[in-house]
Amino acid sequence: METENRISNWNDPVPSAGAGAISITKNFVNSVMSYMAAALAISGVMAYWFGTSEVLLSYLYNATGSLSILGWIVMIAPFGLVLLMGFGYKKLSSTAMIAVFVFYALLMGMSLSFIFLAYTQSSIFITFFITAATFGTMAVLGYTTQTDLTKMGSILIMALIGLIIASVVNMFMQSGTMDYIISGIGVLVFTGLTAYDMQKIKQIGMVTDATTEEGSKLAIMGALNLYLDFVNLFLFMLRFLGNRN
After folding, report:
1. How confident is the model at residue 241 (pLDDT cuts 50, 70, 90)?
2. pLDDT-based confidence at 142, cuts 50/70/90?
3. Range of 31's domain?
4. Domain assignment present for 2
5. CB contact set of 15 (below 8 Å; sequence gap of 6+)
6. Single pTM value for the model
7. Three-state DSSP class for residue 67
8. For residues 129 and 241, what is the distance between their CA atoms, to the nearest angstrom?
9. Is residue 108 part of a domain?
10. Structurally, how many domains does the chain consist of?
11. 96 within a domain of the structure (yes/no)
12. Cα–Cα distances in Å, from 132 out to 34, 205, 213, 233?
């Protein structure tokens, strides 16, 4: 399941800070990356566990190959959890948000298990490492660049909206050519969004203490955005690089 959601309040303008905030910024960014890495690890383990077990997959799919009730819950629930974190941000405590994020990562891992049915394990692992290298490069670029990526981010978010609409339309058209084009655009969009989100995280870190309640919640939201960037970049790349079973 591709989760192409964005957190709307993440794109609000952020004031800049002076050089005295370097230590605070690094602590905040480290918190974001730690949350994200933990979520990816949870999803990766769950995806592999379910994707390589016929018994576990039988809980998600019926004998006919269609989704079971649990399968539909696993596919749809992550979208609801993203909305919960986005719209319930001010009401939820940081502990509650961590719990929701962990539950989200678990469900996403289960929903991603389908890739082991569609693609060979070797191509999945190779694509994962290529995605990690691309993501890491763009994250470093976003963190270190002195260029303001705000305008680029706005364009990419509009492109993402168009991408979602095109994906929905192609669900009915079932066009292989359109799917290939959508995948190419998706790779470009999420590659750019990785740099944009990383710069945004750095800016927020300049004025946010990650050890506070508010700082912890912002770090979780930042981790969620980077998690979505990584997963979607991986899925779009897999369409290009993955060898089907």
Report:
1. confident
2. very high
3. 21-241
4. no
5. 207
6. 0.89
7. strand
8. 12
9. yes
10. 1
11. yes
12. 15, 23, 30, 9
